[in-house]
Amino acid sequence: MLFFKETRKTGDIVKQITSLDEDDRFEGIRCPLCAWRPSSGDLWCCFRDDDSPEPPFRSCGTIWNTFATRGRCTGCSHQWKWTSCLRCSAWSLHEDWYERRS
Ligand SMILES: [Zn+2]
Ligand SMILES: [Zn+2]
Hints:
Oligomer: single chain
Largest sheet: 2 strands, antiparallel
Bound molecules: zinc ion
C-alpha cells in the first residue's frame, strides 16, 4: 500500500514572494500630478485631517504601504478613495495612481 502525503501548505507559497517581486508591484504606479514613484519602503498613515478630500471616518493611525493593499488600511480595513503624494503632498484618487496603458 502506498501513502501520499500532501506537504505543500498555502503558507509556504505566500512566503515565496520575495522582495524582488515586491518592487515589481510598484511598476506602473506614479503620482498623477508630479510623476513621483512610490516604492515598497514608502509608508502612509491612516489619519484623516480636514485638508483631506476623504469622506469623514474614524481613522485608526495605522502606518502601512497603501499601494501594497490598493488603498485599504491594514488596521481598520478602511478603503481609502484618495491617496496623498509623499513628494508634492497633493491628493489624488487612488485609481489615478495606476498608469493605464492605452
Ligand atoms: Zn485605518
Ligand atoms: Zn506628487
